[in-house]
Write a structure and sequence with these properties.
By secondary structure, the chain is α+β, with helices and mostly antiparallel strands. 45% of the residues lie in helices and 18% in strands.
């Protein structure tokens, strides 16, 4: 992730909201904490997606992003 951020001259916000090219993997996953995948009438909708989520998803690659969406949408044990 860090290498891809440097290669593309991109950045993600750190915990204080300042741009960084060296986020921890834990922080990258925490960025997705509020993104939700909702299925309404058979159509999936992604809610709370911001430009920095799209940057992180693009850098992770489509397959990994689909996995992250699956984890977000997975039912939580009671």
């Amino acid at each position: 992730m860090r290498q891809r951020l440097e290669e593309t001259a991109s950045s993600l916000p750190n915990q204080k909201g300042k741009p960084t090219q060296r986020p921890t993997l834990r922080w990258v996953f925490q960025l997705f904490l509020w993104v939700r995948l909702v299925v309404l009438e058979g159509r999936p909708w992604v809610l709370n997606l911001t430009p920095y989520h799209e940057t992180a998803a693009r850098l992770l690659g489509a397959q990994r992003y689909s996995f992250v969406c699956y984890l977000i949408a997975a039912p939580r044990p009671s």
